[in-house]
Design a protein that fits this description.
Layout (H helix, E strand, L loop, with lengths): L3 H6 E7 L9 H8 L5 H11 E2 L15 E7 L11 E5 L3 E6 L16 H9 L6 E2 L8 E7 L2 H12 L4 E9 L5 E5 L2 E3 L8 E3 L8 E12 L2 E10 L6 H9 L15 H6 L5 H7 L6 E9 L6 E5 L4 H7 L3 H8 L1
Helix pairs in contact: 2-3
Length: 328
Amino acid sequence: MNSPKAEETFVEVEFRVEPNYAGWRLDKYLRAKIPRLSRSRIQRIIEANLLSEKRLKSSTLVRPGLVFRLRRRMLEEPLTPTTVSEIHRDDSLLIIDKPAGLPVHPSARYHHGTLVMLLRRLYGEGLQAWPAHRLDRETSGVIVCGRTREVARQLMEQFSAGRVEKEYLAICEGVPPDSFVVDAPIAEGGAQVRIAVRIDRRVGRHAVTRFAVIRRFERNGDSFALVRASPKTGRQHQIRVHLREAGFPIVGDKIYGPDEAYFDRFSRRLLEPEAWQELRLSRHALHAAAIRFAHPSTGAIVSFRSPFPPDLEQFVVEPVETAASRAG
C-alpha cells in the first residue's frame, strides 16, 4: 500500500488502447500518445513506471481495450477551465461542449485539469463517461463520450473507420479562395516541436480537408477569413497544418502560425509581448462546431452542434470604435 506521502507525490495516468492501434508495439503506441518524448525515453518509462495486470514490454503488441497506467511524479499543473456545458445526454451518450484550454486526457503535464477528471468531479460516480475522440487543448467544441466502455469502443470504431462527419470553424489569415481542398499527406514530427506534424509526400499518411469561406473581414488593415473545415480523414493537427500548407495559417497558432519556436517559449512561459501581438489571440482560433454519426444503440444518424465561442466571435466582429475611427 502506498504511503500518504507517496499518494501526494505521484499520480497514475491510465491508458486504454483504441481500435486503430491494434497490433502496434507498446513503445510505438506510447510514442504516438506522448510525442514529445523520444522512443528510448518511453522504453525506459515502460520498464520502470508502467503498471498493468500482466507484465508488458516495449515489444508487446497492444490490442483494443488493453488498459495500463503510467506512474509519474506530480508536478504543479497550469490552471485549466473548471466547467463544461452539456449538449446532450441519454443512456448511451454524453455530448460535451469543451472550452478552449482544457485537455481531454491526463498527460505528463496535466492530470487533475483534464476533461476526464473534470467529468468525474462534476458528475461523481453516478455518471461514467469515456471520450471517444480527442480535441487539442486549445480547440473548443463538441466532444462525444460513451456512457459505457463498450459504447465508447463502438464510437471509436466509427471514428477510426471514417464514418463520423465533422465540421470545424477556423479563423485564418489572408485571402483564401471561396472554396478549396488540401490533399497533403501528414507525417509525425515537426522541425522544432516534437509533438508537431509536417506535410511529407514521401512518408506521410493520406489526409484531405475541404474548406469554404464563410466571411471575410479586416482588422487593423490585415485580411482574415472565417472558414468552414470538413476533414475527410482524421490525422493529428490536420486542419491546422493543412491551412498553413495552403498559405492561410490559423490565427493564434503557436506551432503552425508565424514561428514554430513560439510553442517552446510559450510552454516555458517566456513568450514575448511582440510574439503575442503577432499571434493576435491567446489560443488558436479553431472550434469543433458540429459532428454527425450513427447512434451506437439505435443506429439512427444523430448530429450535435456547439455555438461559436465568444472569444472567436469577438475577433471576427470588428470593434465599433475601430470602424468609427477609420470612418472619421
